[in-house]
Amino acid sequence: MLFPFPTGELILLTAALLGWTEQIKDRWRLYALCLAWIAGAALEGYWQTGVEWHWNWARFAVLFLFWRWAWGRARRRVIPLLCTVAALFVRDVFLLNEPGILIGTQWLFSIGAVFVAAFISYGYWETLAAITGAWLMDPFFIRFLYSDIWYYGELPDPFAWHFCAVVCAGLTVMRYLFRRWVHRGRRIEGA
């Protein structure tokens, strides 16, 4: 198991609690992500899609909501999204044709997809829109590619969900720290 505990859910809960205790300006967005997760979990309890594939609607709801916010704030949207989707599609095809040929293939291609999104996009929101949008589309490619090969699969893949949550949280923390560093540098220069 690559992530020994539910990392994505813990990051979501920690962000919501941090927004509540620190009175962050956009804390309603963190609450909305938690409500989307709860609504998706309720939908998952009432609507089962089949025996072969387990669709985790709580994770889809959180990814979709976060993607929608990032998509709305992004300036250049389509090219980074298509390139990141292509990188994940290459990963899926490689894992289908040559499973286990490289150690850590899932990590390698996932980190590669993040680098593709980061290098092609102009800013923070474009990168997040490309990453979350690609991981939203990836389960549909997996379902199409592995339709007669796998007889059970969890979508989105738990690795992809946790990896996407860690990357989005890491990029957000790095952006926050960079802004504080730039603001601190301007304050020192002005003194």
Textual characterization of the structure:
- This protein has helices at about 5-20, 25-45, 55-75, 80-95, 105-120, 125-145, 160-190; strands at about 55, 155.
- The protein has about 190 residues and is mainly alpha-helical.
- The chain has one domain.
- The protein has a two-stranded parallel sheet.
- Helix 1 (about 5-20) packs parallel to helix 7 and helix 4 (about 80-95) runs parallel beside helix 6.
What gap, in angstroms, lies between the N and C termini? 52 Å
Mean pLDDT: 82
Number of domains: 1
Shape: globular
Q: Please report which band the strand proportion falls in: under 5%, 5-15%, 15-25%, 25-35%, 35-45% or over 45%.
A: under 5%
Number of helices: 7
Query: Helix/strand-derived class?
Result: mainly alpha
